[in-house]
């Protein structure tokens, strides 16, 4: 079964065309984001299809995909909640936010994804927004100065189908949508 | 009398109009590019050299000199890559520059590209910067629409294509050779130098790589002249620095101040230590720079003065810790970061950071042993300068500097068999990551 439909195949060609002639391999990250946007993670089929598009082996594509934390080779929740626990956020209470995120989503400590498949929690390294510590990203949209209570509210609104307003910019509706934005497959705001 | 607090990069941050291309142009934007296009590339490089601008990404290499290293007439294309993979813990100035005034940065990209006669520029944007990435997509599209990029930059006949490339979550890609590997479609692992990127960079072609803040300084240097820029800051570290201040301060944020400004003044700008507590430790330039103490508050924040105090200016990311913060835990968390982000290429870094994080973990949790401190000293020595790239050296900074300035805190953890700050120890906590190997101290 093909991962990418005809429209996305055209998107893939446009992605490859961003790079100089003969340098199609540079498109591997955006193409991986594109297959991730269709399947919610990068599957074997997705790896194979990216390899085909670039004329390299599946193993070469997997070697790349497995290096980067934003490309998910395992089943992933509808929403990815990234909680920074690096020093600047830790000094401002990130450990409590991290714990509260687990409690609210039902993800067991040490696990990644909730049993209902709704949420994946990622312990994040510095997100480059330390003025707003502790920082949480929901599907890569930033939420500033998050408290344990606030993270529970955010999870609650995701559960009820809402997309919480981020502190800056616009929020993707879920992880797949975020992957599509990352592939630059959408018109920018 | 010169302005005591001149603003360069953040000069327009009070004006929300400069976010878009029309507002930026109305505020005089892209005039410096127009002036640059009327100069010869050699003259342009001389102006940047004369300004004394040094790279703001951490290394502090003179920007004009870097530009002059890019060879001409090689028969290969020349590339410019803007490094917007901002990920050094504590650093967030590049992000705010892009979020507030993306065209100031893009104008710098265009000027640098013309200076090295490149027709292809890439912006490597950190993947987690979803919104800044969208901002740049819009800004680049608008710049094409207004004839700033494309076939004939501002009607000059000089052609420039600018492509946004998004990363996918890997700190190491901020290292310039790892960034190039990533941009070529490989794992983001660093490469041996030489050859240097200037000669054999992207696609084995001449490549100039500059940080966002560096590029955001360029237009103002052309507008106001290199002497003006050189008159700000210190003789060897001219200009300003956008300091990212975080942790235990009243008003965390970016503060643009002249190079050489003492920490004390930067802290005052950020409202002082949170709740009026006493300062304990701070990093001058992110987690990879050795931490300093309250005794170093009058150290001027420029490349030379910070080095003389035993640290590095790095990215100017000041993470502030107060008297209530545990230094062992801070060092442990930072080393955990390096262990996670090590690309795995070099054994001393891959294995060393993992071992150090475990030893620090057991000390923090009250399971430390007396021999752990010499063991940490030794592990640090066996990582420092033993790997391909600076990630490993960065990992040693929190280890060595915390042991140097706060050895007594380590000793207290071991003697009291608990963390003196949290009270946690064997009575309350299980031993972290216990395994048989950990009970054997390497001979």
Strand order of the largest sheet of chain B: 6-5-9-7-8
Q: Strand-residue fraction of chain A?
A: 5-15%
Low-confidence stretches of chain B: none
Radius of gyration of chain B (Å): 23 Å
Count the beta strands of chain B: 9
- Strand tally of chain A, please? 4
Give the DSSP E fraction of chain B (strand runs of 2 or more residues): 5-15%
Series of H and E elements of chain A: HHHHEHHEEEHH
Shape descriptor of chain A? elongated
What oligomeric state do these chains adopt?
heterodimer
Computed structural class of chain B: alpha/beta
Topology pattern of chain B, helix = H, strand = E: HHHHEHHEHEHEHHEEHEEHEHHHH
> Cα-atom Rg of chain A, whole angstroms?
17 Å
Rounded mean pLDDT of chain A is 96
How many helices of chain B does DSSP assign?
Answer: 16
Shape of chain B: globular
Count every helix of chain A, treating DSSP H or I runs of 4 or more residues as helices.
Answer: 8
As a percent range, the share of helical residues of chain A equals 40-55%
Cα separation of the termini of chain A? 33 Å
Task: Note down, in words, how this protein is organized.
The complex is a heterodimer of chains A (189) and B (443). Chain A is α+β, with helices and mostly antiparallel strands and 189 residues long. Chain A is built from eight helices and four strands, in the order ααααβααβββαα. In chain A, strands 2-1-3-4 form a four-stranded mixed β-sheet, covered by helices on one side. The two termini of chain A are 33 Å apart. The model of chain A has no long low-confidence stretch (mean pLDDT 96). With 443 residues, chain B is an alpha/beta fold. In chain B, the strands form two sheets. In chain B, strands 6-5-9-7-8 form a five-stranded mixed β-sheet, covered by helices on one side. A four-stranded parallel β-sheet of chain B has the order 3-2-1-4, with helices on both faces. The termini of chain B are far apart. Classes of the chains: A alpha+beta (189), B alpha/beta (443).
């Amino acid at each position: 079964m093909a991962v990418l439909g005809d429209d996305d195949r055209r998107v893939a060609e446009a992605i490859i065309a961003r790079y100089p002639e003969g340098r199609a391999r540079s498109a591997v990250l955006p193409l991986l984001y594109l297959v991730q946007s269709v399947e919610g993670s990068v599957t074997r089929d997705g790896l194979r299809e990216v390899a085909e598009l670039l004329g390299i082996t599946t193993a070469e594509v997997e070697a790349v995909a497995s290096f980067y934390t934003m490309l998910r080779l395992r089943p992933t929740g509808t929403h990815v909640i990234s909680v920074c626990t690096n020093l600047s956020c830790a000094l401002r209470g990130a450990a409590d936010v991290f714990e509260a995120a687990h409690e609210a989503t039902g993800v067991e400590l040490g696990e990644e994804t909730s049993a209902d498949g709704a949420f994946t929690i990622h312990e994040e390294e510095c997100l480059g927004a330390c003025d707003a510590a502790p920082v949480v990203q929901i599907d890569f949209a930033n939420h500033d100065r998050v408290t344990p209570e606030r993270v529970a509210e955010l999870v609650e609104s995701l559960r009820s189908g809402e997309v919480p307003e981020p502190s800056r910019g616009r929020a993707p509706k879920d992880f797949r949508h975020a992957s599509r934005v990352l592939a630059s497959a959408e018109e920018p705001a | 009398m010169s302005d005591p607090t001149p603003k360069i990069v953040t000069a327009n941050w009070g004006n929300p109009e400069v976010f878009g291309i029309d507002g930026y142009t109305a505020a005089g934007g892209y005039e410096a590019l127009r002036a640059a296009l009327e100069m010869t590339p050699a003259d342009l490089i001389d102006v940047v050299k004369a300004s004394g601008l040094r790279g703001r990404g951490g290394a502090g290499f003179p920007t004009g000199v870097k530009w002059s290293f890019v060879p001409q007439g090689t028969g290969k294309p020349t590339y410019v890559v803007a490094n917007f993979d901002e990920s050094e813990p504590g650093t967030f100035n590049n992000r705010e520059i892009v979020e507030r005034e993306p065209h100031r940065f893009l104008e710098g990209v265009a000027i640098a590209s013309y200076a090295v006669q490149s027709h292809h520029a890439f912006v490597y944007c950190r993947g987690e910067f979803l919104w800044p990435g969208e901002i740049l997509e819009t800004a680049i599209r608008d710049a094409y629409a207004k004839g700033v990029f494309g076939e004939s930059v501002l009607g000059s006949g000089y052609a420039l294509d600018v492509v946004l490339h998004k990363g996918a979550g890997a700190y190491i890609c901020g290292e310039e050779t790892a960034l190039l590997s990533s941009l070529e479609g490989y794992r983001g692992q660093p490469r041996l130098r030489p050859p240097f990127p200037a000669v054999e960079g992207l696609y084995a072609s001449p490549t100039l790589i500059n940080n966002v803040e560096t590029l955001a300084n360029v237009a103002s240097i052309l507008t106001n002249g290199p002497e003006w820029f050189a008159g700000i800051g210190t003789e060897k570290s001219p200009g300003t620095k956008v300091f990212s201040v975080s942790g235990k301060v009243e008003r965390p944020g970016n503060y643009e101040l002249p190079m050489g400004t003492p920490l004390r003044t930067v802290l005052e700008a950020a409202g002082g230590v949170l709740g009026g507590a006493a300062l304990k430790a701070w990093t001058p330039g992110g987690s990879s720079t050795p931490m300093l103490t309250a005794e170093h508050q009058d150290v001027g924040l420029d490349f030379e003065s910070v080095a003389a105090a035993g640290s590095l200016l790095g990215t100017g990311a000041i993470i502030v810790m107060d008297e209530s913060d545990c230094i062992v835990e801070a060092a442990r968390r930072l080393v955990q970061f390096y262990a996670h982000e090590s690309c795995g290429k070099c054994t001393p870094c891959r294995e060393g950071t993992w071992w150090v994080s475990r030893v620090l973990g057991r000390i923090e949790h009250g399971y430390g042993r007396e021999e752990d401190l010499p063991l940490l000293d030794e592990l640090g020595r066996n990582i420092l300068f033993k790997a391909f790239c600076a990630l490993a050296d960065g990992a040693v900074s929190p280890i060595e500097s915390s042991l140097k300035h706060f050895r007594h805190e380590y000793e207290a953890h071991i003697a009291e068999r608990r963390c003196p700050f949290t009270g946690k120890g064997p009575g309350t906590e299980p031993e972290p990551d216990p395994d048989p190997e950990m009970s054997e101290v390497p001979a």
